[in-house]
Design goal:
The chain has 390 residues and is an alpha/beta fold. It contains 12 helices and 19 strands. Helix 5 runs antiparallel to helix 6.
Amino acid sequence: MRGNTVRKQVFIYSGVVLVLAAAVAVWFFLTQENVDRLFAAGDRVNVLLAGHHDDGTVDLLTLVSFSEADVVLFSFPTNVRLRARDGAFVRAADLGQQEGIPSVSDGISAMIGMQIPFYLSFDYSALRMWIESLGGVNVTLSGDAIYRDDSIDPALRTEIRAGVHPFDADSAILLATSPSEEGDLGRLARQQALLQALLSQGIQQQTLRAVRKGIDDLDPPLESNLSLSELALCGQLLHAIEPGAIRANRLAGEIVEIEGVSYTQPNVVETERIVAALLKGLELLTPSDVQVAVFNGNGIRLMARRTADYLKARGFAVTGIGNADAFDYDTSYVIVLTDEAKAWVLRDALPSDAKIVFPDTFRSRYEALQDYIPAGTDIVFIAGAGLEIE
């Protein structure tokens, strides 16, 4: 009898061990599968965060890009000019309401030249729930925050000095969404400060169990192409990153008005440099790295000097100016003397198109100018017909 009891216990324990082993194997398989999908595009996971109000109005757009060692927050104004699926240009916020956040993610991916395979759209009720569960959040402001609370009448002007400030859920949401006297750029700075605080205090300083529970509690109000298990894995990865390994930046651009609509038009060269440095681990050339000699090839009075001043104002180093061998250039030319990449930096900074050429394919004209090109020059720029410099 006793032998049978012992054998039964052995069978039970063995069964439990097998079940546990199978559960661990399944968990490992699913986790590995999620890891593979998250990192399918490279060594970073890119997720576009989109915060919106009850009516669907989007006023927070931030790319959260993280590896196993660092986190980058790259924010975009909601009026940034994006290309929709039909080819038309539209503001990001309008595109979100017309076609949904996946289209916004695609438009931003095309604009910055980097794949953003995942998105997470949330109503501010979800953010309120999270902050309330934390008992509030301490936000570090690097500069004074000045914004307008339009939720009351008359609107209340709020000014908060730089430093660390405690916020409850409602005041934190006002901090992130209220219009700024500085325009969208001021709001982006506030949003990044709040997101950094939430990453640090809401994920990295919590226990992993608390992080998982928080994700489970927040899941219903979220819209995402990430599964719940993938969101949990993202939380686990973010939890393991050191608090000091969070970096933030925002889109470089300028406000333009096109057909009565105000947009933020991205600065292509500067945006490319930011993306390369922040997200691709590269250091791109900047205008200050480019030594350029400028020649007047269209005969317009003071064209070489005005072009040189234009380039200097954008950070280029001008080695010299003068007249070209003739004033009959039908377009502008960028002659590469050293690094071709420097020619692209210059061309992207010009207000109109220019042809990039090399001395051996532009021999007769180049040889006529060769003696007038200062030593150390990287690029020769010949201002031709069609160049308009104010």
